Amino acid sequence: MSQVRAALYARVSTLDQTCENQLAELRSYGAARGWNLREFVDTGVSGAKESRPALDDLIRAARRRQIDTLVCW
Fold first, then answer.
1. Which pairing describes strands 5-12 and 69-72: parallel, antiparallel, or unpaired?
2. Residue 21: alpha-carbon gap to chain centroid
3. Terminal CA-CA length for the chain
């Protein structure tokens, strides 16, 4: 069986916030399962925006079947 390819997604809406607390937990969760992790991070991007660069990249990767599962916090 091949290793699970997991996408980690984190976002904060302002530049004075950080995604590090989210990413630390997501990395730990994936590492505990032995997953191959790929991170997608939007910093300073409002959830109300129509386009979020990292989320757009994540959706493209999913459509191309480059990831098997998504984990977000």
1. parallel
2. 13
3. 27
